[in-house]
From TrEMBL, chain A:
GO molecular function, one term: dipeptide transmembrane transporter activity
Superkingdom, natural source: Bacteria
Domain ABC transmembrane type-1: residue ranges: 103-312
Organism: Parafrankia colletiae
Annotated PANTHER family: DIPEPTIDE TRANSPORT SYSTEM PERMEASE PROTEIN DPPB-RELATED
Membrane topology: Multi-pass membrane protein
Family: Belongs to the binding-protein-dependent transport system permease family.
Protein name per the record: ABC transporter permease
GO cellular component, one term: plasma membrane
Lineage: Bacteria, Bacillati, Actinomycetota, Actinomycetes, Frankiales
TM region(s), chain numbering: 12-35, 109-127, 139-164, 184-204, 245-269, 289-312
Cellular compartment(s): Cell membrane
First-listed, main subcellular location of the protein, grouped into a coarse class: membrane
CDD domains from the UniProt entry: TM_PBP2
Keywords (A to Z) from UniProt: Cell membrane, Membrane, Transmembrane, Transmembrane helix, Transport
UniProtKB/TrEMBL annotation, chain B:
Protein name as it appears in the record: ABC transporter permease
Keywords: Cell membrane, Membrane, Transmembrane, Transmembrane helix, Transport
Subcellular compartments: Cell membrane
InterPro entries: BP-dependent_transpt_permease (IPR050366), MetI-like (IPR000515), MetI-like_sf (IPR035906)
CDD domains the UniProt entry points to: TM_PBP2 (cd06261)
Length: 324, 278
């Protein structure tokens, strides 16, 4: 019995795994290919413009720059599979080390933004669905249209202007690590995380509102109402869970949007995160770092998809895999 | 309910009016009696502070006319928006139709490639393309088209699957029509209609992405004007002369909002038609 159950799970999971592996291989290939097209010689970036021909040749040999493209891709990819993402042309550091050092910042921003966005948009979505077309619903629809149309960097500028310059209290730029004290860390993270969160709130709350309106018309809600249950209990205990599937999917997908936003926000607020690493290494043509970061982000994206699938099963008993 | 419908109608008209203004600005920028976007306004020198008022909307940090730059900037934003939407839609149609019509391994192969594009955050991909290509509008359009293709393709695939089993397609197949002709004559018109509203939504995204790229310093090389670049240039003067940031930011905001409203209305109108047909 248990053996057959394992078989079912494998049959469901294996094609998905194969697909993910193909996607990641392709991402790595694309990143390597794109940067191979980039103009300029990384040896120049490493040695400076005054480098002699011998120095450049030596660097080329050391970094295997003269190998054919496919050979370099293969060497790199087989390293990645073993967890070795290569070393930066510029700093000589292992790529994974610099990614890990920057991840602390970007990871914190992304998680704070996700938590903040959900904390704000779930109540808003539920309440606007409860009184759909009411005054609050219409007001929020206007506000959220405005938020959707505001580019993240304009939002960040505005928040920095109002909260850091005019009101004061929050730092406008820079970063303090968690080790420097949680208070300082959170104060530095507040503005960038708020910017990222505000960009998500309109889509999140609208998605939940739409699903919630549909759920509220179902029979089990009518039954709960006729039993005289309090409205708040009906909304948050009975209606929220069956209305949250699209929101969960959207949350998984928005990891990419969050990281795009983080790139802008990190540059704007001068935060030492992954986004800044991408911008500096792309301009410096530090190929291994760009490849490493892109690969890492792709893995995160695929993992987020997998987590979403599992969450789906937790929320909705109908999609759970049952032994047959 | 009635008031709401009227408000909706008003917002659509305002959106169309703003888009018309932007299009006019982009097309006529060279013909309008404006100052040059690259040269200093006469009467201004290096020591004049930004925001020199005799000039309408003021001057920027170097002393160029903000009005001229914002009007010429419309050209860049619109070109990028329309160009990338058209390219992404064409590529998305081709891949999505093929995936939805042939299914099986074609579908799988296309799906894997599109997933690979989606797995890289849009702005990261765009930065990489911008760094590789020559700095200019064409590179940005190409980068945005790559970023946008998966979304169009997914929509096109879903729409193809929705119509591919209808009788008129079966009839065409029974008559021995070749797949290429079925795709072009039977499926394409249906699928294009369903994709058109999304093109506006994508244009809104493209305008923001172009502005973000210019904001990061990876857009058009100076002195060419773009809204994102103007916002970036105005940042240090936010406290003294917020106009430098405010004017281009409002342009981006209104353009994005207008495209979103138009796309939204088009989608709703299409949905209504579809439901009447069934």
């Amino acid at each position: 019995m248990s053996g057959r159950r394992g078989g079912t799970v494998l049959r469901l999971v294996l094609p998905q795994l194969a697909r993910t592996a193909a996607v990641l291989l392709l991402v790595g290939f694309g990143a390597a290919f794109l940067l191979d097209l980039a103009p300029g010689d990384p040896a120049f970036a490493l040695l400076g413009e005054q480098a002699t021909a011998e120095q450049i040749a030596a660097t080329h040999r050391a970094l295997h720059l003269d190998d054919p493209f496919l050979t370099r891709y293969w060497t790199w990819m087989s390293g990645v599979v073993r967890g070795d993402f290569g070393t930066s042309y510029l700093t000589g550091e292992p790529v994974m080390a610099s990614v890990a050092a920057r991840l602390e910042v970007t990871g914190e921003l992304v998680l704070l933004a996700l938590a903040g966005a959900l904390a704000v948009s779930v109540p808003i979505g539920v309440l606007t669905a409860h009184r759909a077309d009411g005054r609050a619903d219409r007001a929020w629809s206007l506000v959220s249209s405005g938020l959707i149309a505001t580019p993240p960097f304009v939002l960040a500028l505005f928040l920095a202007y109002v909260l850091a310059l005019k009101v004061g209290g929050l730092p406008a730029t820079g970063w303090a690590a968690w080790a420097d004290g949680p208070g300082a860390n959170l104060r530095h993270a507040a503005l960038p995380a708020a910017t990222l969160a505000l960009a998500l709130v309109p889509t999140y709350s609208r998605m939940l509102r739409a699903d919630m309106i549909a759920t509220l018309q179902e029979d089990h809600i009518l039954a709960a109402r006729s039993r005289g249950l309090p409205v708040r209990r009906i909304l948050f205990r009975h209606a929220l869970r069956p209305s949250s599937f699209s929101l969960v999917t959207l949350t998984g997908i928005s990891i990419g949007q969050l990281i795009s936003g983080a790139v802008v926000v990190e540059v704007l607020f001068a935060l030492p995160g992954l986004g800044q690493l991408v911008v500096t290494s792309v301009t410096a043509k530090d190929v291994p770092v760009v490849q490493g970061v892109v690969m890492f982000l792709a893995v995160v994206y695929c993992a987020a998809g997998a987590v979403t699938d599992v969450l789906y099963g937790c929320l909705d008993p109908r999609v759970r895999v049952r032994p047959t | 309910m009635r008031a709401r419908r009227e408000a909706d109608g008003l917002s659509l008209w305002l959106a169309l009016a703003w888009v018309a203004v932007v299009v006019a600005a982009a097309v006529l920028a060279g013909a309008l009696p404006l100052r040059s976007y690259g040269a200093l306004v006469p009467g201004v020198d290096a020591r004049t502070p930004p925001g020199w008022r005799p000039e309408f909307l003021g001057t920027d940090a170097i002393g160029r006319s903000v009005l001229a730059r914002v009007v010429h900037g419309a050209r860049e934003s619109l070109l990028v928006g329309i160009g990338s939407a058209a390219l992404a839609m064409a590529a998305g149609l081709a891949t999505g139709l093929a995936a939805g019509y042939f299914r099986r391994w074609v579908d799988t192969a296309i799906g894997v490639v599109l997933d690979a594009v989606l797995a890289v955050p849009a702005l990261v991909l765009l930065i990489a393309v911008a760094a590789v290509g020559r700095r200019g509008t064409a590179t940005i359009v190409l980068g945005l088209a790559v970023v946008g293709t998966p979304s169009f393709a997914r929509l096109a695939r879903a729409s193809t699957l929705a119509v591919v089993d209808r009788e008129y397609v079966a009839a065409a197949r029974a008559l021995g029509t070749r797949p290429g002709r079925i795709l072009r004559r039977e499926l394409l018109p249906e699928v294009v209609l369903r994709l058109a509203p999304f093109a506006f939504v994508f244009m809104a995204f493209a305008v923001v992405a172009e502005a973000s790229l210019s904001f990061l310093g990876l857009g058009l090389p100076p002195p060419a004007p773009s809204w994102g670049g103007m916002i970036n240039d105005g940042r240090p003067y936010l406290d003294g002369d917020p106009f430098l940031v405010f004017v281009p930011a409002v342009c981006v905001f209104l353009t994005v909002a207008s495209f979103t409203v138009i796309g939204e209305r088009a989608r709703r109108r299409f949905d209504a038609r579809e439901s009447r047909l069934r």
